[in-house]
């Protein structure tokens, strides 16, 4: 897949043309290390441009497992920084996803509208077709799996992955990190063993972890929408014309999308609006300061359009009519006095 052109020491070539190699700045004079590191980074991790401020860069090591389809690269390096701009992204011979697992140190990665400061145990996905920046803040050890999008389409039926941080605290994200760490520790063994099963195992772990990401994103998005709905209901439930269609229009979504946010929650948007109105009316009916207000006035003030509908809903919810509830509340206050 990647033509690794930099100076290297091959460890071996296994079945199917698998190449495992190692490379280190230790072979070079200190004053030459920045330039050879720049060349090696470009040869093993796609083209990057390193910041000149890192010319005093000291040390790096690379091990790469190149199957001709995907590439698995382990990297140890001192602090440095670099980027890929839009021109570099367009110049690639093909589009890739990079799955990066950090084992030691700290690294900040920025792409599109997200920025992740990675710490040991973190995994993220970046897209080679989009500009990206990295800053190694502390000396790191990491592994990167570079997957061509066409290979992803062959395995999963889709060439699209979400970019950003993968949740590695549990589930498939944790398994993905453990797998990548294990491969990093035994990378030279694959020169003789071969990698078809390893590649598929890694890709399955990636896809499963992405499934977790998408599920979590859906849950988070649904929860955020529910919270917005709750806030709008609280502000507008007393308006008699306030209904799910009005609420959906205020949020800029369809009624179907609004109702979908409350699927499997045991309630609906219409039920939540009615529930809020009923509880507000119940509070008013039990308030001695509002004894001069009729039941009709209270129900209309709290968003109901008719006293008949209010009375039916109140009885269905609380098992007592509004008037009887008010009388009961008055009697209980008298006893308390």
UniProtKB/TrEMBL annotation:
Keywords: DNA-binding, Transcription, Transcription regulation. SMART domains: HTH_ARAC. Transmembrane segments: none annotated. It holds the Pfam family HTH_18. SUPFAM superfamilies: Homeodomain-like. InterPro entries: AraC-bd_2, AraC_XylS_family_regulators, Homeodomain-like_sf, HTH_AraC, HTH_AraC-typ_CS, Tscrpt_reg_AraC-type_HTH. GO terms for molecular function: DNA-binding transcription factor activity; sequence-specific DNA binding. It comes from the Bacteria. Residues 227-328 form the HTH araC/xylS-type domain. It comes from Pseudooceanicola lipolyticus. This is HTH araC/xylS-type domain-containing protein.
């Amino acid at each position: 897949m990647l033509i690794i052109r930099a100076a290297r020491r091959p460890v071996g070539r296994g079945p199917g043309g698998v190449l495992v190699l190692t490379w280190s700045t230790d072979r070079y004079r200190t004053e030459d290390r920045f330039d050879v590191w720049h060349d090696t980074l470009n040869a093993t991790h796609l083209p990057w441009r390193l910041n000149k401020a890192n010319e005093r860069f000291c040390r790096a090591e690379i091990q790469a497992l190149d199957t001709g389809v995907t590439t698995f690269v382990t990297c140890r390096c001192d602090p440095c920084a670099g980027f890929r701009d839009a021109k570099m992204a367009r110049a690639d011979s093909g589009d890739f996803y990079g799955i990066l697992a950090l084992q030691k140190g700290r690294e900040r990665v920025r792409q599109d509208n997200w920025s992740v400061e990675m710490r040991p145990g973190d995994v993220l996905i970046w897209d080679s077709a989009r500009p990206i920046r990295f800053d190694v803040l502390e000396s790191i050890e990491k592994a990167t799996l570079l997957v061509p999008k066409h290979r992803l389409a062959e395995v999963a039926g889709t060439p699209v992955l979400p970019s950003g941080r993968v949740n590695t605290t549990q589930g498939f994200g944790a398994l993905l990190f453990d797998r990548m760490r294990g491969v990093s520790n035994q990378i030279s063994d694959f020169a003789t063993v071969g990698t078809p099963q390893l590649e598929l195992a890694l890709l399955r772990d990636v896809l499963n972890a992405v499934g977790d990401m998408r599920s979590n994103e859906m849950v988070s998005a649904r929860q955020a929408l529910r919270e917005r709905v709750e806030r709008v209901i609280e502000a507008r439930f007393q308006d008699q014309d306030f209904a799910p269609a009005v609420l959906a229009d205020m949020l800029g979504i369809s009624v179907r999308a609004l109702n979908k946010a409350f699927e499997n929650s045991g309630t609906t948007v219409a039920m939540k609006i009615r529930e809020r109105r009923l509880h507000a009316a119940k509070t008013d009916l039990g308030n001695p300061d509002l004894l001069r207000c009729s039941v009709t006035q209270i129900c209309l003030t709290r968003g109901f359009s008719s006293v008949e509908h209010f009375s039916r809903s109140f009885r269905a919810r609380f098992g007592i009519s509004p008037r009887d509830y008010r009388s009961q509340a008055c009697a209980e206050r008298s006893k308390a006095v």
